[in-house]
Write a structure and sequence with these properties.
CATH topology of the domain at 185-280: Immunoglobulin-like
Distance between the termini: 82 Å
CATH superfamily of the domain at 185-280: Macroglobulin (MG2) domain
Number of helices: 2
Shape: globular
Order of helices and strands: HEEEEHEEEEEEEEEEEEEEE
Largest sheet: 4 strands, antiparallel
Strand order of the largest sheet: 1-2-3-4
């Protein structure tokens, strides 16, 4: 009798635990050439509702409202943006005031081993460029948003590097009139490792990265054969945005030769890597 009572109790506990999980939606088939997920997109009060996005090597698409994989808005990459590997990111806020999150895209002008970096912030609902930096005399960093002067409004900050590179760079700061408390929690929603800048570089370069989950974070550099060259980060990181510089030396302080290097970031179950080029 005790066994049967216990069995009934376990049954009801299990039913109570799993009975709340119900299948809500199944999408139609998505080509495995696409990355997909949900992303903040349409403004609703002080926050943003999400849409499904699709990303492949040719285009970035925002799907129709609700649970849908039917594209409503499409941005098609140009040759420079395809060469850069379809590096499209959310600005996480609405910069042009039309009620939708805006995005930015990186381009490599030149070849995959000798290029300058361009940057464009765009409105995917219209295809219009909000800000584009593509000057043959400079290579441009990723844009960042911050309330740099403490006036309650975002400033948009970009670094630009003269070409040929002379070991210096300049900062450009743009006003946006966007309140810094809109959808603001000071923590990134994504684990992200950005392309180093400048790239190619000599003698040093900057790597920016974002941690979404607090924990042990590692950022290491390897040569083309997979040998560990330098450990830049190996410590606990809170969720947030970070940057680190590499001066082209190994773990023993020796200068490494010109060539292709890979940098890899690990945080929890997340791992990603990118390529960079040291030219002397």
């Amino acid at each position: 009798m005790k066994f049967s009572v216990l069995s009934v109790l376990i049954f009801f506990l299990a039913a109570g635990t799993y009975g709340q999980i119900q299948l809500q939606w199944t999408s139609s088939a998505i080509s495995d050439a696409n990355l997909s997920g949900f992303i903040d997109f349409e403004k609703s009060g002080q926050t943003f509702t999400q849409r499904v996005y699709l990303l492949d090597s040719l285009s970035f698409r925002i799907c129709q409202p609700g649970f849908s994989v039917t594209p409503q808005y499409t941005y098609t990459f140009n040759a420079a943006e395809r060469l850069a590997g379809a590096q499209v990111y959310s600005m996480t806020t609405d910069l042009d005031g039309n009620g939708y999150v805006d995005f930015y895209i990186i381009g490599y002008v030149g070849t995959s081993t000798n290029y300058r970096q361009s940057m464009k912030i765009f409105d995917i609902t219209t295809g219009a460029a909000i800000l584009e930096k593509n000057d043959a005399s400079f290579s441009y960093s990723y844009p960042t948003l911050d309330d740099a002067d403490g006036n309650g409004l975002y400033e948009l900050i970009i670094a630009k590097y003269p070409l040929p590179y002379n070991g210096t760079y300049m900062l450009e700061v743009y006003s946006t009139n966007v309140p810094s408390d809109v959808n603001e929690n000071n923590k990134p929603s994504l684990f992200r490792l950005q392309q180093n800048y400048p790239n190619p570089f000599n003698p040093s370069t900057t790597i920016e990265y974002s941690v979404s989950v607090p924990g042990l974070t590692e950022l290491k550099i390897y040569d083309i054969s997979g040998q560990l060259i330098k450990t830049l980060v190996s410590e606990f990181r809170e969720a947030g945005d970070y940057s680190v510089n590499w001066n082209g030396t190994d773990n023993y302080g020796g200068k490494v030769p010109s060539g292709i290097y890979f940098y890899r970031m690990n945080n929890g179950d997340n791992s990603t890597s990118r390529k960079m080029i040291l030219l002397k």
